[in-house]
Amino acid sequence: MGLARRLYRGEINVDFVGKWRLWYSLSGLLLIVSLAGLLINGLNLGVEFKGGSVFSFQAPSATVEQIRTDFLDQGVHQPIVQSAGSRWRVTTETLAEVDLSKVQNSIAKEYSVPASQVDIQSIGASWGGEVSKKAWIGLGVFMLAIILYLSMAFEPKMALAAIVALLHDLIITAGIYAWSGFEVTPATLLGFLTILGYSLYDAVVVFDMIKEVTAKLGTTSKQTYSMAANNALNHTLIRSLNTSLVAILPVAAILFIGTTLLGAGTLKDLSLALFVGMIVGTYSSLCVATPLLVTLKEREPKYQAIARRLQATTGKGSKSAAVAKG
Prior knowledge:
Elements: H1 2-8, H2 20-40, E1 44-45, H3 47-50, E2 52-58, H4 64-73, E3 80-84, E4 87-92, H5 97-110, E5 119-123, H6 125-153, H7 156-180, E6 183-184, H8 186-214, H9 225-235, H10 237-258, H11 268-297, H12 301-313, H13 318-325
Parallel strand pairs: 1-6
Antiparallel strand pairs: 2-4, 2-5, 3-4
Helix pairs in contact: 2-7, 2-11, 6-7, 6-8, 7-8, 7-11, 8-9, 8-11, 9-11, 10-11, 12-13
């Protein structure tokens, strides 16, 4: 409690910039693990992307294993079973018309429901490819808009640092999906875009404070760029943590309570992306975007001169020199 109280009073100054090697190493490890998951397992694309057949029906007393076994007995390979209360959604590979009728009648007989109440939706692979294409276009337009906005609102180096942080968040979140085997659906893509926007918001708040503080630096300044940026980061630390906590708690409730206790399995596609992305986004805005920005800015002659002068007079510029060498 004492640490939390001191943190909220602003009495603790965390050296985020000075520990850039630790953050870069941690991020590098997370990225390697995430890329390994994407290469080894790949993403478990939903039927909306790869095509397939979807069966939807009511079966209050059924279990996941029971329904999966019933579909396997009908010759369906690797059915994906999801529940939402007493209603079930089973995704399969693309089935021929005769097989669709066969499975539909079997479900109706097994769970005592009229065949007309076993809804069937067939999605072609070409339609799924079109959805994938539009998703990539949407992501590209989003990233371009971010680059243009940050370049105009701040400066290109801040835009570059923010984009690197966004890609960092996206790859790690996608890697967790690859290792966990969670299905990637259009809801997942909405979650990805949401966390990118959230990460961008956090980075903009931090960069705005850094811009305000570092604008006062001159040839006679008693602070290097890295010192000023670290102070600015600490001034926004509580705001970032509070915003993240408030946002993460309801998402965690959806992910852990809604999908486990209440059986709202269709929500996990979205909630996992939001939960992981918000945590990683908060980390990246504090420990990736700002140290990277400082590394880029400390290479500028103006700030190198300040660091050399402070090093010669007080010995306080050595840390900035280390950051600049990268």
